[in-house]
């Protein structure tokens, strides 16, 4: 799978072993290689949250925010985006305005 983040195309891979030293990771992003890796053994729900988590890191880095990103903020945004898109399917459509969005 490939994902466009700004002008860059990232390849998304599921990998069997994903670790950072002594801690287990659910995913990571490599900006230089334009690659996102997701732990294959994770539940599908965790994979989706992890993908959005890494996409948000990619968006911030592309916007010049190259320092450490606040992981709690990234997690909150990933969960919030997923839930908002699930609860409001009209937001998944490219058309504007969303249905019923006309002013009277």
Main sheet: which strands, in order across?
Answer: 1-2-6-5
Morphology:
globular
Report the total helices.
2
The structural domain count equals 1
Query: So, CATH architecture?
Result: 2-Layer Sandwich
CATH class: Alpha Beta
Q: Determine the fraction of residues in helical runs and give it as a percent range.
A: 25-40%
Q: Strand tally, please? A: 6
Note the main sheet: 4 strands, mixed
Q: Give the CATH topology.
A: Zincin-like
Mean pLDDT: 90
Order of helices and strands: EEEEEEHH
Q: What class would the helix/strand composition place it in?
A: alpha+beta
Rg, rounded, reads 16 Å
Q: pLDDT below 50 for ≥5 consecutive residues: which ranges?
A: none
Cα end-to-end separation: 43 Å
| Percent of residues in beta strands | 15-25%
Can you characterise this structure?
- The structure is a single chain.
- The chain is α+β, with helices and mostly antiparallel strands and 104 residues long.
- The protein has a single domain (2-92), classed as Zincin-like (2-Layer Sandwich), CATH 3.30.2010.
- It is 35% helix and 24% strand.
- It contains two helices and six strands, in the order E-E-E-E-E-E-H-H.
- It has a four-stranded mixed β-sheet with strand order 1-2-6-5, with helices on one face. A two-stranded antiparallel ribbon has the order 3-4.
- A hairpin with a 2-residue loop joins strand 1 (2-5) and strand 2 (8-15).
- The longest helix has 19 residues, at 44-62.
Care to give the gist of this entry?
Helix content is 35%, strand content 24%.
Secondary structure layout:
Elements: E1 2-5, E2 8-15, E3 19-20, E4 23-24, E5 27-30, E6 35-39, H1 44-62, H2 71-87
Parallel strand pairs: 2-6
Antiparallel strand pairs: 1-2, 3-4, 5-6
């Amino acid at each position: 799978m490939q994902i466009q983040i700004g002008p860059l195309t990232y390849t998304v891979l599921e990998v069997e072993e994903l670790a950072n030293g002594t801690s287990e990771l659910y995913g990571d992003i490599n900006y230089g290689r334009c690659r996102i890796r997701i732990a294959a053994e994770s539940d599908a729900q965790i994979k989706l949250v992890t993908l959005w988590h890494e996409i948000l890191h990619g968006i911030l880095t592309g916007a010049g925010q190259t320092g450490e990103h606040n992981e709690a903020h990234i997690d909150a945004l990933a969960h919030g985006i997923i839930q908002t898109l699930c609860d409001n399917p009209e937001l998944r459509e490219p058309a504007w305005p969303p249905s019923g969005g006309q002013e009277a």
